[in-house]
Amino acid sequence: xxxxxxxxxxxxxxxxxxxxxxxxxxxxxxxxxxxxxxxxxxxxxxxxxxxxxxxxxxxxxxxxxxxxxxxxxxxxxxxxxxxxxxxxxxxxxxxxxxxxxxxxxxxxxxxxxxxxxxxxxxxxxxxxxxxxxxxxxxxxxxxxxxxxxxxxxxxxxxxxxxxxxxxxxxxxxxxxxxxxxxxxxxxxxxxxxxxxxxxxxxxxxxxxxxxxxxxxxxxxxxxxxxxxxxxxxxxxxxxxxxxxxxxxxxxxxxxxxxxxxxxxxxxx
Length: 268
Description:
9 helices, globular, 7 strands, seven-stranded mixed beta sheet, about 50% helix, Rossmann fold
């Protein structure tokens, strides 16, 4: 399934006003299990910081994590980099509307983007699975972090990430260049990139997998077939979201022995 056309359609629907864009961000925070994991990790990281921080949001997409960090972190500046000019223009325009300063959106290729020892935090959500030269990108992140700075990644795992379970299957998201990472594979690449320590945990375990089916795969599959399903989405989520909410809460609170996603923390 091609995900980018659906993302563009959603952008049109929710870009009519600043408040609808904020509502869209809130809905993403509720629906996306990876957002639950990322927000939890950011809250914990925030307690370890006393001075204003400099942040890189690498591959910011809709800009929802940039927005949340700008609202919640004591930040000096946030650099938000994405490969797509349309994403940069869209988010830059929205942030100006809501008067958020010290956030700098720019078009950039993460395989070449390096800002030596500038950042306290690099955030990379659902990006690594789109990049062939992943070790180069991880190396750039490490070089761009200050000593003791943290990299936070969400990405599919090799335990069924991208909805791939057998050798003959293809990714649910056709823009992915790999189906997912193994824990040892990711650890080896982090070591090669120069990180000194890391913590890699599975997400989208037993409960998170069910939530993903209800909150993402089924509705996205319907929307990919016809835009008419936009009309049915509110009713669909009214019925299914209470279950997805419960399963999300369980996934972030239990230890997942395996799962279709990885939450990666690495320190320089």
